[in-house]
């Protein structure tokens, strides 16, 4: 069986399993949304037990990872799906997912609670969902443990989007969730369209974006069916990269929106600066001036609206260390001895290590071809920098969850193949498994022991292995890198020749 059909079959099965678990309704993976309504979001309320749900989600993750690996092999051997088929499949999956209840966490309920509070004219940065209206609101009161007492940590642009959705939902939890899912689905498709436009002139690069983003079962599951706002931030950030070289006003608005939704997306602003660095100083100053004013035109009123408490909780959350990161191995040993001071130190150390890794990656990737048109060197340079910066941060941050990886996978889709594809796929796969079934409630004792055991005792070591692999790759001899680049260029020339000799050169083969 060809890699293309393994990609298609495994991906389809993965998506069907995810959809099936969501359709089944309230479970250890799917937060309940209350009584059924005539309008979406819809589910069957089958009451599946946590063991079955976890098994189905693990199988979906395995099939999703197999699909991505097979898809990369198919692209490398020039086995492409037809663009029309990709479009129909992506729109179809996203549409189905938007009608189903989100799974894998209860974060979407927190988003909507913050939006509900903001839409009512109150402050989600100062008041927790359980405090607001004494926890009796049908939307804000639905927030799940352990986040019921937590005010918002998200930027004002995210809060504005959440407030808009909450206003449209008009107090109906299911309707509000549906509108949020639609917004996430549209953002996912916007990223897919942007990646497709950037690679339109290269059939192989275009097909790579389909595998790593558009039809990626793991990303679809985390971002669309999972309903995570990271996909909205990614849409703004990738849009900013696409416009930055030629449309500074548009790029400024988009990067401002990205930073205003989640502050870590400021890394994309640094990537834009890197890509423009070779411009003459007067031209660079004018370009950056327009971009800055455009961004401030969005961010200043957004912060005036969100108020002085916007970043209060963000500072308090700085010492968190998630269970599946390698840093947890360190804090588990040192916390009993030194107390909270360990976590105060881990954050700055991780930031420094992330910056160092980003520099190593950027040096290693400099001059490497991308899927972007050769004449668009500035955008290509921005993409390389965005990938290096986000990967450095993501691998070294003490607090990381599966959907955080989306900020890396979007620029990764625009690069040419390297060992990093496999390393980052391994990281994402491990994190997805580590957070099965997703909620902190509803698990049997056996499922809780198994999933927490993997999350605490296995995942950190596997994530550390990924970091070591990436570090080794950055230190490979330059001539090895050049040889791999020449090999890829040779494959690209053969691919172009094959397409040129085909009777329908403008379209990849079925």
From TrEMBL:
Signal sequence region: 1-24
Protein name per Swiss-Prot or TrEMBL: Polyprenol phosphomannose-dependent alpha 1,6 mannosyltransferase MptB
Membrane topology type: Multi-pass membrane protein
Compartment(s) where it occurs, according to its Swiss-Prot or TrEMBL record: Membrane
Transmembrane region(s): 52-74, 86-104, 177-198, 210-243, 249-276, 288-305, 345-362, 383-401, 407-436
Organism field: Kineosporia babensis
Family: Belongs to the MptA/B family.
Origin superkingdom: Bacteria
GO molecular function, one term: glycosyltransferase activity
NCBIfam families cross-referenced by the UniProt entry: MptB
A Pfam family hit: MptA_B_family
Record key words, sorted: Glycosyltransferase, Membrane, Signal, Transferase, Transmembrane, Transmembrane helix
GO cellular component, one term: membrane
Cross-referenced InterPro entries: MptA/B-like
